[in-house]
Amino acid sequence: MAxxxxxxxxxxxxxxxxxxxxxxQAGIPPLDLATQTKHALYLARSGIKxxxxxxxxxxxxxxxxxxxxxLISHIRQEMDKADYKDYPIIAGTATQGIEDTITQLQISxxxxxxxxxxxxPGFFATCITQEGLKQWYTAIADRSPLPILIYHYPSVSNSxxxxxxxxxxxxxxxxxxxxxxxxxxLSLHTLLASSPLASMSAGKFATFTGLGQQLxxxxxxxxxxxxx
Length: 228
What we know:
By secondary structure, the chain is an alpha/beta fold. 36% of the residues lie in helices and 16% in strands. Strands 1-2-3-4-5-6-7-8 form an 8-stranded parallel β-barrel, surrounded by 4 helices.
């Protein structure tokens, strides 16, 4: 079974860009790796448990795979140089396809991320069944080079929501080790974090809230922390 990220507070960081130097760069500004590094080190020195690169805050959908590799590998190298070896880095994905998601997870692993945060595919949300979601995540997890967390964020997924039974089913997969729940429904946190199922109660499936204002009640029902 995959090990989930350590409990604590994680920050989904923005992706920093430099000011375009030419007209040709106007629509495609270059990454600002120096600022990205300063921000990551500031968070680590402040006691933040880990960071999420290329989540929804990090504009994952606007980043090329080449930029993904450059960004993650640079931050990993700079964290190592600053004596933050093995600092937790979670890499987000937000594609609609299984193959594209697996490709991004492989790039992320090769660049130094330890976990993937996989957003549900919401483009055809009204047509997707819970069985379809289970098959989609299972197909990705079966081939993922990284342990993955399910990113449950209905507001950016066309209101697509995973049911408690879908989470329960997916939690038994050896490569699916947790979830980020970005919504106001504390009952789902309670159902998952307090579940008597072995994969959840034994700490093999960790639930994180995506809303910092929910941190205290989420912790009281057994949640692992916040990604916010």
